[in-house]
């Protein structure tokens, strides 16, 4: 019993320390994800370690576990009502200045089309984004097409297909492979009902896996962060980023882009994994320019995927405003992104997980 508790305690301490190592490898980066779960396990283990392990080792392990708990908690607490929000609520609503977005990773092998059809009908978003779609999914979603006159369909069989359908006009749309072959992203300009435009970016980079580095994912997220600063239009970035809101990659993205995370100060809105209540973290994101105000945000019911759908409604204002200030860009941020992007550009490989849903 004592040996088991000691080993388990050391593993929890290691799982807390290893994500601090600045190595872009899945074996390290994946440990960023289950911080809430690690915190629960650390707090549950701590009293047993202090009582069961002989002194002075029990005391030392207890101190280390307490430090690990503090470290895990500091990442998560920003995504609770205990923290000051980044996004400012809209004080009065103006529908002509609003956009509602529903984004969902459908899980390619999931065939519960009817559940998603009913949800989209019920929510009635201005913009509907579905990720991991193949040709069967595009056909399954066909009953919705009449309500979305602007449609971008890029089905693929590798888990990286997407559709972006809109009731609002789209302009200058580009579907790109930013770094990795067959890993798609979209950049488009959306025109609100009052005529004002904004830039919309949709991403679905590769997930971290223990057998590969995360340069493709990290560089793609960072490149889009830089790109948002190169347009005069207010920007919105959304999608399944395969990264959690508190990670170093996402924090660097925010420093580079200046975009706000509406979950800060409000809640985790854990969108993955819909199948297992204990294994959930926020993977499906929406970041917005400070010129937008938050009207609403919600995690939607299960549609048969391993992701919950997310919906956001934003309202474009005349001036910037934000609550909690984003960290200033660091001198090394752009250099790190360019280095990872250059390394990834030299690779010639298929995307990670391209055969998972076959």
The appropriate CATH architecture of the largest domain is: 4-Layer Sandwich
Number of helices: 9
CATH topology of the largest domain, by name, is Deoxyribonuclease I, Chain A
Uncertain runs:
none
Strand arrangement within the widest β-sheet reads 3-4-2-1-11-10
Distance between the termini: 43 Å
- What is the string of SSEs from the N terminus onward? HHHHEHEHEEEEEHEHEEEH
Number of domains: 2
Which structural category fits the helices and strands? Answer: alpha+beta
DSSP strand (E) fraction? 15-25%
Report the count of strand segments. 11
Largest sheet: 6 strands, mixed
Measured as a percent range, the helix fraction is: 25-40%
Q: Looking at the structure, what is the overall shape?
A: globular
Cα radius of gyration in angstroms: 21 Å
User: What oligomeric state best describes the polypeptide chains here?
Assistant: single chain
The CATH class assignment of the largest domain is Alpha Beta
In CATH terms, the superfamily of the largest domain is Endonuclease/exonuclease/phosphatase
Mean pLDDT: 94
